[in-house]
Amino acid sequence: MSTLSPSDIIEQINDKVDPRDLLEKIDYATDKIQIIGPTLKCFCPIHKEKAFRSLIVDLKKKTYRCSLKTCKGFDGGNLVQFYAVYTDQSELKAAFSLAKLLSLEIDPSLITGLSQTFLAEARQAFLERDMDLAQSLINQSLDVAPENHEVRYLFGQILEELGDSLGSIREFRTAADGFSSAADMTRAVEIYEQYLLKREPRNEDILKSAADLYEKTGNTLRAVEIYLRIAAENETRGDSGKNIEYYSRVLELDPSRDDVHLLLAQLYEKTENLPGAVLEYLKVADLAGEKSEWPKALEYLNHIKQIVPENFQSREKIAEIYSLLEDFPKAESEYLELGETAIELEDLDTAKRAFNTIIAK
């Protein structure tokens, strides 16, 4: 791991910068670039010069200065400092931004080592309750490696201590999502359980992300629990229409949930999606039949008959249940009514099947 200081790394990156290439990337008045010997002159992009070549770059020393006293670049410095002023970044962050912009080769261990050094120092400052120092060190660590999930996690803790609840939630989510993307599901789950779900128990976006995470880990029971929590919150807010998505997802994970089939059926009926309602009521009835809960099955089948009289499948199931229960008069009545309705609707095949069943019995 690197033991180089931030200034050493900034110097290394500065040495790799091609001034002309940098200015071409910035793309400000590049047609005004003038090179005479070891000196490059151009319109200054810092203060957006329009008339004079006020920016002076030493191509060998890789330094700059702007001749306009009111320009932020008047005091000059190296090219990393120039880019820091131009982009309004810290020098360290500007150095790594430059490396990315210009595709400069940097030993990854330098980045990792420096980021981890700042992280270790930030942890110590956090333990010593020096939050200002901890935040400063964390920001430097993020300047070096913004994708370091452990840094984001500690940053969330620091912001929480400082009373910045929105900022802490943002960083905890970034950390958890980062760990999830890196397939470190244990850490991701830990952050959701210990922080996000406790701090934002009603936040739909966070709850959805948590449920998705549990699906990825194979914990379908917890995912179902969270989807149903979202649905309950939507009911409380009077926004039950959104629950079609969540009930459907629960049933994909656990098709045996007759209570959720019923909730989805009732929601479809409420939103006048009768085909969807019929499908779900049929599933509820079938699940009740599998448990020999015939009164319950009949209740939902008769409800289908009431809201969609032309649904012959529910009528046939009603008749079949009465036959199974050996209540033949009711079974015959249902088959007869089914046949008559089928004739009215010109479904002769269904009518024939119904009447033949009566004859056979």
Helix and strand string, N-terminal first? HHEEEEEHHHHHHHHHHHHHHHH
- Average predicted confidence as pLDDT: 91
> What structural class do the secondary elements suggest?
mainly alpha
Order of the strands making up the biggest sheet: 1-2-3-4-5
CA distance, first residue to last residue:
86 Å
Radius of gyration: 35 Å
Which residues sit in consecutive blocks of at least 5 with pLDDT less than 50?
A: none
Query: What summary fits the major beta sheet?
Result: 5 strands, antiparallel
Count helical runs.
Answer: 18
Please indicate the percent range of residues in DSSP E strands (runs of 2 or more).
under 5%
The helical percent reads 55-70%
State the oligomer: single chain
Q: What is the 3D form?
A: elongated
Number of strands: 5
